[in-house]
Amino acid sequence: MKLKKQVTVCGAAIFCVAVFSLYLMLDRVQHDPTRHQSGGNFPRSQISVLQNRIEQLEQLLEENHEIISHIKDSDCQFALGGKGQSPDLQMMAVYSLLPFDNQDGGVWKQGFDITYEPNEWDMEPLQVFVVPHSHNDPGWIKTFDKYYYDQTQHILNSMVLKMQEDPRRRFIWSEISFFSKWWDNISAQKRAAVRRLVGNGQLEMVTGGWVMPDEANSHYFAMIDQLIEGHQWLEKNIGVTPRSGWAVDPFGYSSTMPYLLKRSNLTGMLIQRVHYAIKKHFAATQNLEFMWRQTWDPDASTDIFCHMMPFYSYDVPHTCGPDPKICCQFDFKRLPGGRINCPWKVPPRAITDANVAERAQLLLDQYRKKSKLYRSKVLLVPLGDDFRYDKPQEWDAQFLNYQRIFDFLNSQPNLHVQAQFGTLSDYFDALYKKVGIVPGMRPPGFPVLTGDFFSYADREDHYWTGYFTSRPFYKSLDRVLEAHLRGAEILFSLALAHARHTGTDGRYPLSDYALLSNARRNLGLFQHHDAITGTAKEAVAVDYGSRLLHSLTNLKRVIINAAHYLVLGDKNTYHHDPAAPFLGMDDMRASQDSLPEKTVVKLGTLPRFLVVFNPLEQERLSVVPVLVDSLHTRVLSEEGQPLPCQLSAHWGSATDVVPDVYQVSVLARLPALGLRVLQLHESFGRPTLASSVRLYLHGRDLPVHQQEAIPLHVFPAAANDFCLENQHLRACFSGHSGLLQNIRRAGEEQEQRVSSEFLVYGTRTSKDKSGAYLFLPDGEAKDPPVVRVTEGPLFSEVVSYYQHVQIMVRLYNVPGVEGLSLEVTCLVDIRDHINKELALRFSTDIESDDTFFTDLNGFQIQPRRYQRKLPLQANFYPMPTMAYIQDARSRLTLHTAQALGVSSLASGQLEVVLDRRLMQDDNRGLGQGLKDNKRTCNRFRLLLERRSTANKVQDERPVSFPSLLSHLTSMHLNAEALVLPMAQEKPPPLALHSFLPLSTTLPCDFHILNLRTLQAEDDSLPSAEAALILHRKGFDCSLEAKNLGFNCTTSQGRLALGSLFQGLELGSLQPTSLTLMYPLGAAPNSTSIHLDPMEIATFRIRLV
């Protein structure tokens, strides 16, 4: 067996070399120079040469596919699963079981009456930990800075003062974004006091991320990045490593978060905003504390202890026990004479010797009732709310009154209670001690849970699903910034390592590190649960947008400086001039709320050079678009060989072309994580292959402005249905609407119905209208458009112009990943709508019944079931990167480049909400509707795959994976190639060479999540070390993986890091916890590593 594998692997290697050699030879094949272009017909010789090249590539890929299928067998067993015991609580099953009947529970409205026997604690007293906290939103009603100056700095200043008055006092803090800003503004003396408070256990930093992130829309790159940013800050400034997670305010919870916390070495976590019916069910069965396990985990290595708060809110009225009317009397900020009071009309009373017995007894009754919902005799009671403890008087009111109660309770042995202030970890430690286990292990008798907690409802049918789409413009900008940050981190790390290797680091702009650091913090800030969610005030959204754009511009500079250095043949000639950068930017944004405008490259007598950056760790064959000012453009490789191109018009509207601007699309092979140098020439000899255009006006009398060089046929009336096809797919469209109707895969008799339509939801007429958080539709929800069809040798597309949306569907005529799916782009503008939500629905004959699949944070897939017993809005889920439906024969995946809300409301359907415009508040504290809509571009890919070995049993399991092709399609969509034109119009005096950083091909289930240079002692400068973060993706082999791309194979999770980076050696390699806080064992002797499927691993490395 082993010999067979070795032979296979060697065969694969030899084949890969052969593929590359052949492709290089193919790259030299030139177009036939003797034929010229005429009218709308392509020169047959050019087309046939191009077609031959494409077919030869196809054949090579086909043979490569045979090899992949041999190698992958053992990697496929993972997705089949079957190992590991099943959990006690599986969230999909819980949803199916619950009636969601919302019965009145008495004083605990969403629960039930709790009773107890007075002697229950005689043998084992109740241990109560009251945990003071202040929830600080880094932006919501006010901007981050305004909150800091008005409230947060006063909270932290008072904290230092007041905590030192009594060693029994405790406080927890979670948002490092605020804490670091405060730290920068305080004295050395105050810093020393903070370190003492942390050291003696009075102050605990919980979770320790830059923010408390949203868990629905955030992508796992950004979730990890903000966690690293916070943890690195804490380690450097305070010398502390967080132990427990605290997430009281995100609107629903993803199972990705417990995985990230577990891999960061945290041992416990707390959550609060869970559907009230689930809280009630878990409370009734004493399942509010559980071990949270990943659905795909075969050996319980991902288990983390989780505490779910039982009641409506994290404020004081809803945390001491089931009766808010009583608990509110123990929120001493609400003492009479203050600015806030108790809505239940019974105010708190200051604790005195005269009333302490009666008050303590009343509070103890609530504590005992709450403790009946949990399995242990240790009780957690949070004490705080939004921006609490901002005045010394509040510290005194809460801490002095509670201390009097504790002193009384603890002095009465007959009450069998021990009450005190505590931190979150004090509570977890006491619980672990009580049940006799070390922190992090499973307490005996506690359940294991898998799944997630979407979608959230806080009362009645108020589902917080609207925020999966709210402010999609910024959700998109977030991902653009994320892709740029990852690209900039990797290129900066490689450029710096090469500069140090050649001794030229003195010339390199190390100041770029401060730009990287600032971008990490701005991206981190935007993961906050009122930022990426779209649930902040309009002025706050503008503040976030300005920060995102500022960092995006800076990251383009970092990428340009690194690319400049890396493509130079002679590194000694490198000269960084910030005033005159070597390369220009690929696009520009006029303001934080405008779409990007692509740079137009001006051609003249001398060639213009382009540097194209591929941020993927796989080589890709891509169609690279460039805007130029000349019809007569040729594109050559750096060696001077012509590359296949397509010339298209650049359209300003449905019927107007932009004068003197053309799009040249180049078919280029881009090295993995590398830079390819291309040359643009103005050449009057042989024209580039132009596309031809058909314009259907549907009876409208519209003037059409065209360019002579690009054949354009105008049809006043409607068209018949028509199709576009490449070697993999045929997509057919309605002549009337221009919308997709069906797809047929090559080699299949039957087409698959995949029809698309736009829907508009209104809001319902009753009192509770939709707003930024809630999605309350008024039931299920027309002029024909102008349709423009473009056909060409490298891609063809259909664009339909509707009143509020234009949709483009493009089919690439290239081998490999890009030609296997349809690119779908929606340009949405609903600024004149009133109370409407716009959705795009795909309807197919896939027999998906009530099941569909959505991703969580781009990290994993969660199966979903349409619940008929729940209202329509309850069936929407977050879709950060993909959603799919399937039956025994087919799977249809919608890949997305931005987080949006998605559902499948009927068998065979997928529906995504593109934008929402709502004129009113939805009574969740924001105080305004959603009226600041922008022109927004939503980008998707639609992938239809054949399933070869589906079985019913496997499909019923609560776990699913994308195919390898699906993973790669998602990566192509989310990591676009960046085209950087040389800034000067004269050619460089020095030789430029493409940069190929990797010496071997990475297995195609490995993803380099980041290569993040770590900070030096001076945190604005880079150190010699970097964090290499790798993710091995789990994938489903039952889908046919045709033509993935060149020599893309898997390796059973093994990777030789020592020889990965060409021209650099691995000076050191230390496996660490996810956020680098803990080394995992001694540094290994070998530089080969192994990762199990789905695992993310961090290595502290030094490249020399």
Automatic annotation (TrEMBL):
Localisation: Golgi apparatus membrane
Entries under InterPro entries matching the protein: Gal_mutarotase_sf_dom, Glyco_hydro/deAcase_b/a-brl, Glyco_hydro_38_C, Glyco_hydro_38_cen, Glyco_hydro_38_cen_sf, Glyco_hydro_38_N, Glyco_hydro_38_N_sf, Glyco_hydro_57/38_cen_sf
GO biological process terms held by the UniProt record: mannose metabolic process; N-glycan processing
Keyword Acetylation: no
GO cellular component: Golgi membrane
Enzyme class: hydrolase
Reactions the enzyme catalyzes: N(4)-{beta-D-GlcNAc-(1->2)-alpha-D-Man-(1->3)-[alpha-D-Man-(1->3)-[alpha-D-Man-(1->6)]-alpha-D-Man-(1->6)]-beta-D-Man-(1->4)-beta-D-GlcNAc-(1->4)-beta-D-GlcNAc}-L-asparaginyl-[protein] + 2 H2O = 2 alpha-D-mannopyranose + an N(4)-{beta-D-GlcNAc-(1->2)-alpha-D-Man-(1->3)-[alpha-D-Man-(1->6)]-beta-D-Man-(1->4)-beta-D-GlcNAc-(1->4)-beta-D-GlcNAc}-L-asparaginyl-[protein]
Domain Glycoside hydrolase family 38 central: 462-548
Stored SMART domains: Alpha-mann_mid
Name of this protein: Alpha-mannosidase
Species: Patagioenas fasciata monilis
Gene: MAN2A2
